[in-house]
Protein 1
Amino acid sequence: MKDLLFDRLHSGLGSVLDLRQKQHSLTTSNVANVDTPFYKAKYIRFDDLLKDAAGSGDNLMKTSHERHFTGLNGTVEEPQVFEQDPAPWVIDGNSVSLEREMVRLKSNALMFRSVTKGMSKRLSMITFVANNGKG
Amino acid sequence: MNILDTLRISASGMSAQRVRLQSISSNIANARSTSTETGEPYRRKMPVFKAITHNPFGSEIDKNLSRVEVVDIAKSQEDFRQVFDPAHPDADEEGYVRYPNVDILYEMVDMMTTSRGYEANTSAVETTYQMANLALEIIK
């Protein structure tokens, strides 16, 4: 029997949290090395991961039209880490841009927050059902 | 890679920037020190930063995470400034005094970038803390 309480969406949200946490540690590592010569900024590309997760794997929804969504796979493999090459005019060979890292830090935290909210709502739905609909 | 390791990386960035600020203050304080223990004028101090892989045995992400360490505090090999001042006790036979190779303007600019770097690391710590709290609030 399929697990109805903690289904693929649940584990999918979990793996997104995991990815966001990984992106966050990469960003803090970039910020710490903002003045290290020849250090290259590192990051994960979320749009590529979404492309991989969409329309791949088994247990996808059946569609009757080519423009219907098949849903997401729900699991993401170990992400690839990309490196930012320094601009040619940079003397110390460091490619960390503090502004870019700060934006990445905050937007990543915002996405993390939205996923935790989603999980929290899902759990309160389960609690609602488990309590016979009494809050 | 857990939250504590992330915090440790930010802490390494902060302490590296603090060492940098210490060398800058030493440079500014000694901008006119014409003699030291070695006899020659004060040389400008420069911390050398190195990125060190935090956990070389971890996952793909872990191998890409680096803390920063100060591996050396190098002394600048630039030429000293020569000023003609025969009355000075450290003047040579021709009356020239060698002053440190410290340029206050460079030090001030370095001080600003150091301060920004430190600030960015505290901001990263703050965000890490918020994210950890959010993760705890899922089960609330």
Protein 2
Amino acid sequence: MNNQVLFAILLLAPLVGFLINGFRWKSHNATLAGTIATAMVFISFLCSLGLVSQLFGANAVPSVGAKFFDWINVGGLQVPAAFVIDHISAIMVLVVTGVGTLIHLFSVGYMSHDERPAKYFAYLNLFLFNMLLLILGENLLLMFVGWEGVGLCSYLLIGFWFTDADKAAAGMKAFITNRIGDAGFLLGIFTLFFLFGTVSFSEIIARLPNLAEVGWSGPITLACLFLFVGATGKSAQIPLYVWLPDAMAGPTPVSALIHAATMVTAGVYMIVRLNPLFLLAPNALHVVATVGCATAFFAATIGLTQWDIKKILAYSTVSQLGYMFLACGVGAFGAGLFHVMTHAFFKALMFLGSGSVIHAMHEEQDVRKMGGLRKYLPITHATFLIGWLAIIGIPPFAGFFSKDEILWQSFSSPLGNKVLWIFGVATAGLTSFYMTRLMCLTFWGKSRVSKDVHPHEAPAVMWIPLAVLAVLSTVGGWIGIPAVIGGGDNWLERWFEGVIREPSAFGEPIHSHTLEWSAMGISLSLAVIMATLAYTFYVSNPSLPGRLTQKFHGLYRLIYNKYFVDEFYFGSLINPLVDASKGLWAYVDVNFIDRTTYVIGDVVRGVGSTAKSIQNGNMQQYAMYIALGLAVTMFLILR
Amino acid sequence: MPINPAAWKVGLDHYLYLSSLLFVFGMLGVLMRRNVIVILMCIELMLNAVNISFIAFSRYAENVNGQVMVFFVMTIAAAEAAVGLALAVTVFKKFREVNIRFFEHLKG
């Protein structure tokens, strides 16, 4: 099969699945709908395997692509419907379709009792299609179409149980917050088109000037900052992260697929895709690094205090996304994408695990009502354990390598500095603490499950994806074993050679094996200490956290209420806007605009009712007008 | 002041004054009267007022063009009277009166 056909099947299979399930959306048959949807995504996965395999081996090509037709061709703007798989998108496409397949499979079990499974799977497939557009599109506009499409599907799926007003509101919150980011992304596209006259990735990168030539990189910095605004919306960074925790209102597999593994990493992916551009704008990169680092730390602290199992994971996701942006910001784009991949594995695993727990607990999400579930859910516990080890960064699990790479780069890169590294390591410690807390409260310790709930292990269709993801979370990091441990080269670095550039224009990175080993040792020992501490807090000595929160009551309240950010947004932006709009409606609209139209209408009606008496059907009056007209004419002629 | 018989000679302008006077009378009748028969008669009056001016101009210009025109006018007047009277008869049959206001019922 040639590549064009493979690309077509890769892209269209989920769309076909969407159409099939979309047209039979009233169906109650979850197994059938789920099988169709899963099969379609699996077909996509096979096609992407076929395409990615061409990047390997003796006659490997740097990238495979396909152009279908000219989508837009107006004046100076030429946008072909072209798609490409290179060393960057290869990783993303495999993760999205691979993890996507597993999550679809999991959904078959999870949604088996839902009322509208066909609709759910239709949305899920539509999401996959848009995500593939976003990843594979060879230009910014195609990416933008996918970008908007995934936002739409995210909205539809967060509000999937829309009869609950809170869940519908969460969907709207996500959508509106994302719109703010999308506006920034669009402005970024406009700026890039204005600067380079094209929206194609390869052409933009080919037309980039040298940093030395540019000198003042204002316009490029501006474009990068606009794009980063888009990324903060989609990837939930400060200040637009607020939608992601609320997005947990959706079904748990959706949280796993969209709000952990794939969609939220779109911002990181976009920055990695445009890495040569961002490397021309060191100031923008500083902003990216700072925002990423701040988000990582900030979200991790909130994660310490939450009681909802999905909320903990959500703040953890925000925090991990912060890591990815930190990596991008210090010029370690490869490490950022590496973390996207490993995070997709272990966070999808943990979300699906939490889904399994919630399923077993009959829709209970509060960890205070769990505990001791290891006994009832052995497989879920075992897989969750691997996810936990991966996220807190215990070697040789996946998270260790990617997180360590990011931390080391934030220290050693010419764009990095010690403050970023300190906060990064501190975040690693906090991560370790809250994830261990989650493990303790959910699976270990004494059971706090109420008497009338009988937890049961998930069916095979649900634990098989967990098992596969557990394997991936174990071995997934091995493709990026750093040279200092593995002895040889870092395989991933070689893989990215050519497509991801080094920040070498800003100076030499620090090369010191001693420092690298000690940095690794510090973060690792901090993680272990924090995990032990959390275990002491929540298993050995459960009364301790209560006493501590009593002691630091103010701080605890501040963090528990998520720093009142939502309240701040409502107070400073949303309520004033709503009030101003209401004022405009009640005064300006009613008193001025409405009244103007009424007056115009009244005038016209009055004139009409006066003038209609002329046309009353009396012939003699008509004859009179004729005679008068004649008289006037005569007068004017004969004057 | 002795009266000059030459000044009493009837000329073109006298005919035209007569013609316009008759025309205005006819027009006023058409505009004001309610009886259809009278209106028809007034129309005849207007037509004939015009005929007078035609004849006068014909004599004045010393050719027969105006007189030929008069024949046409008379023919049409006859046809018009026939149609108008037929309508008047129909209205009379229906309403036992020939008031113009009954023609409003033709609006449908």
Protein 3
Amino acid sequence: MTRWTLCWVLVFGGVAACDSGLPKEYQIDRLRVLGIQAEPPEVGPGDTVALTALVVDPDERPLTLSWSACVLSERGTGPFGGGGETGEGGGGGYGISDAGSCLELNQIDESLVMDLGQGEGATLTIPEDFLSDWTHTARAYGLSKDKPLPEAARQGVTDIAGVNMVVTLVVQTGDETLVAIKRVNVSTASEKNLNPVNSAFHLTGVKDKQDAPVTAAPPGDGSCLTEEHGGLLSLTVGKHFLTALNVPEEPVEYPVLTIGSTVDAVDVLQTQETYYYSVFSTAGDFNEKIFKSGGTRRVKWTLTEKDVGEARLWVVTRDGRGGTTWCEQTVDVTAAP
Amino acid sequence: MRQARSSIGGYLTIMAVLLMGPPVLAETPPITPPKLVTFAKASLPEGTALALGARVQVIVWVTIGTDGTVTEVSLKDGAGEPFDQAAMDAAKRCVFSPARSGEEPIPVKVPFRYAFEGPSKRGAIIANRRGRRALHPVPGQSLAGQVLEKGTRTPLAGILVEVLDPRSKRRFEALTDSNGRFTARGLPPGRLLLLIDTGEHRAIRKKVRVESRGEDAPPTAVEPVYLDPVGLGRYRTEIQDRRVAEAASEVVLTEEELTQVAGTFGDPTRVVATLPGVARSAFGLGYYAVRGANYDNTGFFIDGHPVFFLYHLLGGPGVVHPELIGSLNFYPGGYPVKYGRFGGGAIVLKTKEPPDDRWHLDVEIDLLKSSLLFSVPFDEGRGQFTASLRRSYYELILPLFTDDVKLSYTDYQLRLKYAVTDALTLRLLSLGAEDALEFSRPSEGTGTDTSGGFEIGFHRVLLGADWDITPTLRWTNSSIIEHDRLSSTRAAQGESDIDYSPSVWVAQHLSFVEWDANETLKVEAGVDVLHAAVDGTYQVPTPPPLGDPPPPTFNPIPVKGTFNEELLSAATYVQADWTVLPGLRLLPGARGTADTYGGITHYTADPKLGIRYEFLPGWTAKGLLGLAHQLPNEFQVGEPYGDPTLRPMEAIQSSLGLEWANDDGWDISVEGFYNHLSYIPYLAGELAAEEGDIDRIFWRWDEEGRAYGVEVLIRKRMGGRFHGWLSYTLSRAERRRPGRDWNLFRVDQTHVLNLAWTVRLGADWSLGARFTLSNGNPVYPIVGSRYDADRDRYQPIFSTQQTRLPFYHRLDLRLDKRWRFDTWMLEVYLDVQNAYNAANAEGFNYSYDYGKRVPGASIPILPTLGVRGVF
């Protein structure tokens, strides 16, 4: 059955949009920002954050990275937040013309933006009064600046949810510009989030039917793959499983503030951290672009004859609450024997 | 020459009375033809004579009013003077019992034949010895039979049956009665010829053998004679459909119009998409934005009660078998106040009466489903029973393409009607549907299998009683009990299950009185009480936590709960149809409703005034002004994210227009409209700090809307070789929220053109076409993107200026062929949607960074082949 036959069968049923030959997100064939790390990802007022970015360019051109920070309206805080082509932005308290990055906010009111300079990294120091100044919380959550919450209620918000300082990275080379954002959560929580550590991955052929280990020593040099337990560092064409290792046996539990999960209820729920692994490569196809720490923790990577040669692999690990880390690996792909 | 005289009995030829198109289906609604009550003889001028045995025939058109009197006579086929004038003068003096559509008298135009015969050897009047005349019974044998229409088995009334004795060349005549039966008397025994030649059917010439029997013996019986309509005579729509409009602005569609429009797959409710004021809906789904209102502002009613679930899933057909739908009234605004609770238009379906004189079976098979419908009268026609069942077979087809989607649907209807007395009729209608959709997304061994399903179903029982208290006063009671259910589930490895499964019990009672006060005033008043109780369970995602970015993939934090809501809605209404002056009708109405939900009672009043003024014959000015309210739906007011304080939406509706109609079946309507909508609910998802606490506002209801435009409808009604309509709407629909300017409504389509036309090609072939041309919907173009490093996803950057998707254009074709056999018919049809495979984009598909886009999916060329047997 052809792709298009399935398409109109499903679309006639309104089931899903179909593959239309558009580029796949995991394929690295152009300048991309794959991740931004804030170390630490969650801080308190007055703390300092180190910012770095994973930027890849297959053409290896010189890049200029510019950093800034500001407070933006949260997007997606509503049940169906976000703008759309057919209607003005709704949900999340923002409109279609609201700024979505510090670059855009700077054009509205540059006094609201902190310039962090240029370079491969940057440093952000959170103002001491960041949380005590109601205007930041009001802007972040679309609340009235003139009606601050009582101190007790504000404390509840800052203890659990905090307020995000949004970092904006502008990557420029030639006439090409990319804009990326990253949230740094500022809270008064006693236990703050940390970036994931001990990132390691195991690669094996599907036909080998070899189980991946649960843990292994991380490579330590920023690479992804471990040779422990028969892990591969070079591959032949075919199908492979890439499995995430060192997933905490007991996921970290932490409170979240949802508000209004039922009418008139303010809910503080306990939830567990989940790790999300985004894969990118210069070769091959993945059956999914993001896989999670739940379940088998693995993704299928298929390489064909056209992929023979050197392939680069990146895996960015996120904990779903701002924590980020990544690894990079070069692998040799050889033809089938 | 001897004195000519008209025949003793006028020859009344009445073509089958059809409101619903040609009697192609035995299930055509019961149209009772007019019956001659008083025959007026045609008098020729003194001295006019015909030769012995000569016969002159004059056929005139006679228009019979609702009171049975002849309102107009014109010549159809003349024989010259003085016969033509004599026939026309006499026809004017005839009196009939009026034709009826169900119970309602309707005006009709029928051909009426006068035959002038010269003297013959038989039938002489013998004067007795006392000078008084006496009629002697005609001696001889009798022959009895029945005349039916071929294929439909519809009895044909008023058919002239001749019996010819080939030996003596004598002719004997009889007329069929309302059951199609005839008895020819005074016949000689032996081999005779049965002759029927109506001019609209293939002539019958059949040998019969009349037996010699005693005086009191029953007549010789012959087998039924089946007449095959030919030429345009098979399209017997001499009925002038001038049924009285129930509202200022109304379009009424009849059976063939509902089931044979190309591109609708025979689904009556989808035909509404071709009418003026209706925006084109994506993918041909049958939900409509009418005159700028939202999709859910147009109500669907079946036999007076609202329908909550009208279509099967994924673009499937309507849930009611098309053959059960007798008529469809479309009100783009200002619908009669007896229907309520919707802020836009109304689509009112009425189920059809099956034949009361014979059983009927309808079997249909197409590429996607099969259906069966059976009806049978009982107790000498006092009662009728109908049952239908339809079932899809996607389970057989989809596996040829994918194992990831499963779909099935079923619907059924049972209908029972019984006339307990001439004045009291009881009705029972049971209908229901069940749909199931399952999808799965295997992970190819990576342990992230995802599956889910969506089920929806409803089951309704309606009990009704119609009591004609007096000839001018009718009291109708109608109650429904209904169970609706919906189940939406999702399961994925490593994630919490999602389950949203409300169940609703609905009870509604309608009780209303219709009073024909006099010829100029009709009044209807009634009450409408509806109760709905929602229960069930849910486990759904909470809103995204504050401070945390939305996760890279769907990973819900679930919240569990149970539904427990009730709605009580009680309304009372009164409406009138008042002919103030000849041609000037006022249609006032008022409805008051009390709706209680979430512990809050909302009171609304819906006054309406429609005016229709026929200021010249065939020319009518029309206007309406009214108010309509609509409750928020259960999702908007119930748990977990509803807001019971939402108030009903309000719509001010107005229109002004002109209609023209002629006797040849042409109608033209031009109508301007302006609607204003207030308190439109929409998803807000905002946070608010109120009274010292932080809360979430899921819904707001401060959006307003406006729509204005002009609608044109040029229509050729059923009859003759072709029928159809051209509709064009020029309009603008907008929305505005506090603090913002007016913006185009997401389904605003400045120009919408529909041409739906059916041509009868002869020999029971018909070809239909439908062409649609409309603006694309407004969109905010995506002009860039930014990368969200926490979500690993790009956010689109929208332009603040709207533009439009490309123009939409599509041609649908339908070809029908029917074969008539004596007692059944076979129909084959080919319905092709998007015949020239136009690539109309319903939107765009974007690359992950919104840097590239391709047109989104649209309906490609989609043929359906169907076969149908009608018995």
